[in-house]
Structure formats: C-alpha cells, structure tokens
Amino acid sequence: MKRLTSAGAVAIVAAAGLAAGFTGTPAGAAGRTTPLPASGFDQPAAVQAENALTAQTAAALGLASGEQLQVRDVVKDPDGTEFVRYDRTFNGLKVVGGDLIVKRNGESVGSVKYNYNAKAVGVATKPALSQSAALAKGAEAAKFKATGNKGTLVVFVTPGKPVLAYEVVTTGVKADQTPSVLHSFIDAKSGAVLAQDDEIKTGTGNSMYAGQVSIGTSGSAPSFSLTDTSRGGNWTTDLNGSTSGNGTTFTDADDTWGSGAASDRQTAGVDAHYGSQLTWDYYKNVHGRNGIFNNGQGARSRVHYGNAYVNAFWDGTQMTYGDGQGNTKPLTAIDVAGHEMSHGVTEATANLNYSGDAGGLNESTSDIFGTLVEFNANNSTDVGDYLIGEKININGNGTPLRYMDKPNKDGRSYDCWSGSVGGADPHYSSGPLNHWFYLASEGTGTKTINGVTYTSTACDGATFAGVGRDIVGKVWYRTLSTKLSSGSTYLDAREGAITSAKELYGNDSVECKGIQAAFSGISVPAGSAACGGTTEPPTGDNLLKNPGFESGAVNWTGTSGVVTNSTSKPARTGSYKAWLQGNGNTSTENTGQSIAIPATATAASLSFWLRIDTAETTSSTVYDTLKVQIVDGSTTTTLATYSNLNKNTTYTQKTFNVSAYKGKTVTVKFVGAEDSSLQTSFVVDDTSLVAGS
After folding, report:
1. Considering only Cβ atoms within 10 Å of each terminal Cβ, which end of the chain, N or C, has fewer?
2. DSSP per residue over 614-641, as a string?
3. Range list of β-strands (E), 306-351
C-alpha cells in the first residue's frame, strides 16, 4: 500500500482543493513553460518496433535459453539514442524483478543495466509447495476479508538470487473502505512470504481551496461534460457514495461548475478535474510525457467514493477521492493528484519496489513531482512550497506532515542516508531523497520562498548553492525514466542522477556539480559516476585478454590461486573469477594484466564487477581492503579503495575513466590486504578496458 503517510497516521500532501465558480475552458495554469518539441516520436509505435527485435536483443545480450524479453517502455533522445526497458519471462513464467534497461542506437546495443545485476534468472520450475497452500498463505497475509484469491507461478528475483514463487493476488475491501488488490509473493519451496505490493496507492487528509480556475471541458449547451479532449480525454465521474463501478460523468448546462461549497457535488468534481489537468500539463510541458502512460491517453478521476471516506488513491488506471470526515471535506487537491498520479508514472517507468531503498525512492518521487506540480500550477491561492501537508493541520498544531528542507523535523523521517534507511517505512526512508531534492534545488542555509522560511544543512557539513527546482526535476525525471529499475538503491539513484545531469547539461556543468553535491549532502557515497568525467563508457573492443578469467590465470599475473573456479564463492558469469583475500589472517594478494591503450583512442574506460562479503561486524572501522590501481612505469595510481564496510553480496559494476593513459602501456591491478582475523572476500569478475576511437 503506497500512502502519503504510514499506516496509523492521518495525512495528505498539501494542495488546492474545493474551488469556487469554475468556467470551463481548455486552459492550463499560468506561467507554463514552453512545451518540449515532439520530434515526431510515437512511443506506442516505438514499443511495437522494439518488440519485433526482442529475440535479436536477447541473443545479443547472451540471455539463457528459455528467457524472452517484453518491451515495457521506450525513451528516445533527439540524437536517436533509445533507452529500452524490458521485462522478462523464463520458460513461460513471468520474471518479477527481472527488468533491464538497454541503451541502444538502431539495432546496436550500447550498454545494459540489469535490476539487481541479475543477468541470469533461470530456476527449477517444479514447486514443492502446492498452489492451494500458497493461496491460503496469500489470503492469510492479506489481513482483510478476501472477495477474490488467485495465484500463478513466477520467478521472483531477490537481491541475492532468483527463486521460484507463487504470485498470489488477493482482492477485497479493508475496514476503512479502501479497496485492495494485494500481490503476495510466496516462496514455492519454503512457503515464506517474500514480498507484498498493493495495486491501490493511497493518501489521507483534507482538501484545500484553489479559487476560481479554468478547466478543460467538452460538449455544448445544455450538456457540457467534465471531459477534457485536449488532455487525452481526462474525465471526472461521480460515484455518489458507491465503492465500485465507474461512476457517472459530470454534466452541466452552462459550463460553469460548482460553487466552492462541499454541498455542491460538482465542486469536488472540479477540484479533481483541475488536479488531473495540472498533472497532465506538468508532465507534458516540462518533460514531453504524453500522459501518465506516455501513450496520449487520459485517465478517469472518480469523486464521492464511499461514506465519509478519508482517503484518495491511485489504482493503476484512475484516481479516486473520498469526501473526508462528515462528507464535507473532499480529498480533491492538486498535490494529491500530483503525488498519486506520479505513482502511475513510476509504475510505467522504473516500477520501483515499495520496500528497501526502492520504497523510499518511490515515495519521494511522488513527493517531488507532487511538489513540482504545485509550483508549476502557479496558483495564487495555493502557492508552491517545500512543505507536505502544511494546510490540512493534520497534527492539530499548525505544523506540516513532512518537511523537504529538513525531513527529520517530523520526528520520524531520515535526513541522511545510511545502510539502515531501507528498513524503514517508505514514508520515512523517503526523507533523504526529499532532502536531496531541496538541497539540489535551493542549496544550504536559510532562504524564504513564497513567504515560507527554510533552513537546510548538508549531512556532510558542506555549503553550496542550489541549481533550481526545474533543473532538478528534469534530472530526476530522466533518472526515473532511463536509469532506475525495480530494485534500485540510493547508490543507484546517485549514479543515475549524476549521469543524467551530465547527459542533459554537460560533464563539467554547474548543474551536474549541484546534483552531485546534494547527494554527498545526504551522505550517499560516491560511486563511479562523477561530474567532469566521460558521460558514458566508450564502446569498442575489450583490450583485456581473458577478461572473465574463464581460461584460468592465463594473461593474468600475481598471487597464485587468486584466479579460481572454487564453488565457495560464485562467479558472476561462467565458473572462474578473481577471489582476493578471504583468508582471515594478515595477508596481501594481487592480480593484474599489462595492456597498451592506443594513442588514437578518444576515451578509455575500465570496468569490472565486484562482490564483497565479510565476517567483520563493525559498521565504522576499515580492516580489510581492495585497491584498484593503474601502474604506469614507476607511478602507481589508486583509482578506488573498497573495504569490509562496502559489503555487498550482489555483484555490482564499477567503471573508471582511464583516458589519461592513452598512448601508454600500463598494468591494471587489483590488490587485496587483510588484517589478522575475520575474513573479507573481494571477488572480481567480467573485467573490461574499452578504448573508443
């Protein structure tokens, strides 16, 4: 269940709600930015074209027999580069979490990013657990009276490995009238509940007032309709207290809607319609996105749901709004539409999980875009701000629900990222990314915006200026739509956002440096992406020989036994890898290869995959290390140092710009060192050094 706040709390993002005296016209908010050029890009046609190439792409990626690709989304840059997002099946079973992003130009594959780095998703497909037992466990886990319960076998990808599971879909209605379509993933061997996700995305609270606004309608007297043909056919219906069905589309004789009072049923309809209009306009005009699903189709908004229902939700296809306490405070608000419909955009793009770091990124993404919709609306009655829920007084003391400048002011959200953040409720683990958004937009220190004073401090103590919320919004949208996958982490967010900033504004731009500084400002450690380097590793032949170690130690020199096919540590691909340390005593080990980088290369990039496990229990002290080095004659340069503090039992890719060594013969070297007790194993696989020309 994706909420604007955690279970047990009553809250909603601040937004404009009940409106007075509405005259229907197909107009947007004032101060709208110039729409992006369409460039003739037809997203549905692009998806269809890429689907015709899936077998060819699977072969190019070296996917295993039985794996098939299905295109979910295509993003195309003006230069023709496409980011194609795929889902997978294995032997006919849906692979949940097996998504991947391929960057390509024409039919040529440039790079690929696998969710959880899971290239291989094959599993034995015979379950030990019966389907009836899985259905019972799913119904039990739902914790509401089920009206429907069905299940099917899937491959469920965890951060560690893929497993055979049942996806049990339980439908029903909760005690508070909220419908539920709950997906529970049940281990087909042990019966354990691996994860859950609800299709119904909800928020809670009271509506606000937007004053007199223009809305998009259609028809003619005496039968105007709350149907906006200029925005994909967005339409608004009246459920009249029902908790099911589509409702009846609002009509009016004179195209002047509502009175600003909750007693007028049209008022809630106008607020919902206005919020949907603003959200459509924001994504279209700022990001060139043609509707939530990027296919030009609008969405329905349903109002007057249930009886005194204090909630609003997105169910994957439409918005639904309750009338609030006493049926007098409809939850029809700008930020509600912006926040909840952005869950729809997230589902259509990165499809971020609602647990771990990904859950926080998911929830913060809706906070970020809900805030940007509110700023972009330029509504004088409900001005934009970085406070979530400031007008509904949900705490009873005039304080907002969430603060983007200092999330921990609510007493529960995190200001700074750490390895423990992912274990929190997504509404609190969203805090660091909300903090990043404010810092990147406005910078550190004290600032007054639209009459609200903010004070924000970077977690690393740095001081820096912001680059503006519009720029940050564009960077985050590109990150969401072309870089993140379902299981992405805060570290992935930093890598993706810096890379996106470089692509949009340049490698050494002020914008890139501001994005980077803000991630450091929430304590997300640096990875391989950095401002000032190359935007993307060059393409070309791999200059390293025996790069995956499958020929044993051939072409590699160093400590005997480092290159091994021991089954004690998994290889990323094949059976061989370089396993450094893991001895549990004072020792050093190394392996390396000499390589000549052509002077004619335009760029050169070193890349490898790294897995780290450790018996060390500390979270603050470095005991064991792996250094990645370039040896150039008598000069040794350390590109990066990893330690027991970087434990990650899932292989992750590391990439470094080594263009400075063009025209030289150098040695790429991995050097491990361990202290006197408690092992740390550094396992390297699938290396490459590519020089573009």
Report:
1. C
2. E----SS----EEEEEEEETTEEEEEEE
3. 312-314, 318-322
Distance CA 238, CA 250 (A): 7
Amino acid in the structure at residue 389: G
* Cα 288 from Cα 38, distance rounded (Å): 7
d(CA 111, CA 495): 15
Active site residue 363: no
Report how far residue 60's alpha carbon sits from residue 109's, in angstroms, rounded to the nearest whole number.
Answer: 8
Q: Taking the model in full, what pTM does it have?
A: 0.69
Q: What is the mean pLDDT of each run of 10 residues along the chain (693 residues)?
A: 30 26 31 37 84 89 92 89 93 94 81 88 93 92 87 92 94 84 93 86 39 84 90 94 94 89 89 91 93 92 92 86 82 80 92 91 94 91 81 60 93 94 92 98 95 94 93 97 95 95 91 94 89 59 90 94 94 92 95 93 89 86 91 89 87 86 94 93 94 75
Query: Is 50 a catalytic site residue?
Result: no
The answer to whether the bond into 179 is cis (omega within 30° of 0) is no
- What are the CB-based long-range contacts (under 8 Å, 24+) for 562-571? 562/589, 562/590, 562/591, 563/591, 569/611, 569/613, 569/681, 569/683, 570/611, 570/683, 571/683, 571/685
The sheet carrying 223-225 orders its strands as: 218-220, 223-225, 251-252
Helix (H, G, I), strand (E, B) or coil at 164: strand
H/E element, 687: strand 680-692
Q: Which pair of tokens denotes residue 209?
A: 């007032």
Calpha distance 63→651 (Å, rounded): 17
* Angstrom distance (rounded) from CA 366 to CA 386: 13
Query: What gap in Å lies between CA 273 and CA 236, rounded to an integer?
Result: 6
Q: Is the dihedral of CA 434, 439, 445, 449 positive or negative?
A: negative
Lookup result for tokens 């209605």: 173
d(CA 68, CA 661): 40
Q: Burial code of 232-255, b = ≥16 C-beta within 10 A, e = fewer? A: bbbbbbbbeeeeeeebeebbbeeb
- CA nearest to 339, candidates 202, 500, 169: 202
How far is C-alpha 491 from the geometric centre of its chain's CA atoms? Answer: 12
Tokens of 437: 């958004």
Q: Are 423 and 413 in contact (CB under 8 A)?
A: no
User: Of residues 67, 340, 374, 674, which has the active-site annotation?
Assistant: 340
What is the rounded CA–CA span in Å between residue 477 and residue 481? 6
Element (H or E) spanning 45, and its range? helix 43-51
Distant-in-sequence contacts of 629-638, Cβ < 8 A, 24+ apart: 629/592, 629/668, 629/669, 629/670, 629/671, 630/606, 630/658, 630/661, 630/666, 630/667, 630/668, 630/669, 631/592, 631/666, 631/667, 631/669, 632/661, 632/664, 632/666, 636/669
SS3 173: strand
* Structural tokens at position 126: 């015979």
CB 652 within 8 A of CB 117: yes
Cβ–Cβ contacts within 10 Å for residue 514, how many?
A: 24
Q: Which of 279, 335, 339, 267 is nearest to 303 (CA)?
A: 267
Catalytic choice (273, 343, 427, 435): 427
d(CA 578, CA 90): 30
pLDDT digits (tens, 9 = 90+) for 453-465: 999 999 989 999 9
